[in-house]
């Protein structure tokens, strides 16, 4: 199901804990719960959805960018390796991802899945559903994305995951509670807006997520979190401006500024309701100066360190 854990490398300034970086911290605390990375090197769904291929290289590029990031002593970070993806077998790969996510959740860890195209999201959700964590609890799915990804299609793709999750939630007798931050009006047809309305999807458009609106974005996020028992955060890097994130499957026409996205991740990462996160659509083949890989790594870092901060007693 999973390959061996990749080798981590990075800058070395010294041997003491004050010099700690991600490449030092990964898997240094076996048996201690923390953030656990799972790679999903897959762009089958992107290709099925007519996007430009290359997202299968995303997990490796994110790890490479993360390696030299400095990280505080309190943060416990693990790498559970990559899920093996073969040929066009998307559904089998999603099933394997689900098992990997469920295993980490049962072990008390916070899984952060590194995609891969946004087809990653359905495998992530399946793992959450199988873990038992949602029994008797209301799940909220918060997506940072330029697209609703609510398409109906004969085969699963990067455009269908949240429609599939809606079906999954109905199957367990739960209400589909889904919100999207960063919707690009020109990138979503009237039919997709109608589907979102029918499914009760809350959303903010990219124009309403610029830096001058950050308090409104925070209010939207806090209200959504207050309405659920467990939270799944999914991030499609095409939510960012193309100048900040050129290496994605479908570059944005406007986007939500990186500063806003990071602040949202910091807010959510620090909330004990966060059960799962994934970061998708990094396409290193189209990146410039590793901009997109580095911002993806910064988002992973923000979630991980915010989660660590919430477990540190006040005053320490």
Structure explained in plain terms:
- This protein is an alpha/beta fold and 316 residues long.
- The chain has one domain (17-310): Ureohydrolase domain (Arginase, Chain A).
- Helix content is 35%, strand content 15%.
- It has 10 helices and 8 strands.
- It has helices spanning 22-25, 44-48, 58-66, 90-106, 120-130, 161-171, 190-198, 214-226, 258-269, 291-309, and strands spanning 35-40, 77-82, 110-115, 139-144, 178-183, 202-205, 230-236, 274-280.
- It has an 8-stranded parallel beta sheet, sandwiched between helices.
- α6 (161-171) links the parallel β4 (139-144) and β5 (178-183).
- It is globular and about 55 Å long.
- Mean pLDDT is 95; it is low at 312-316.
**Order of SSEs:** HEHHEHEHEHEHEHEHEH
The strand order across the widest sheet is 2-1-3-8-7-4-5-6
Q: Which CATH class is shown?
A: Alpha Beta
Return the CATH topology: Arginase, Chain A
- Biggest pleated-sheet summary: 8 strands, parallel
Q: Output mean pLDDT.
A: 95
Instruction: Classify the secondary structure makeup into a structural class.
Output: alpha/beta
Radius of gyration: 18 Å
Number of domains: 1
Distance between the termini: 40 Å
According to DSSP, the number of beta strands is: 8
Helix content: 25-40%
How many helices?
10
Contiguous low-pLDDT stretches (5 residues minimum) are 312-316
Function: Catalyzes the conversion of N-formimidoyl-L-glutamate to L-glutamate and formamide.
Cofactor: Mn(2+)
InterPro entries: HutG (IPR005923), Ureohydrolase (IPR006035), Ureohydrolase_dom_sf (IPR023696), Ureohydrolase_Mn_BS (IPR020855)
Family: Belongs to the arginase family.
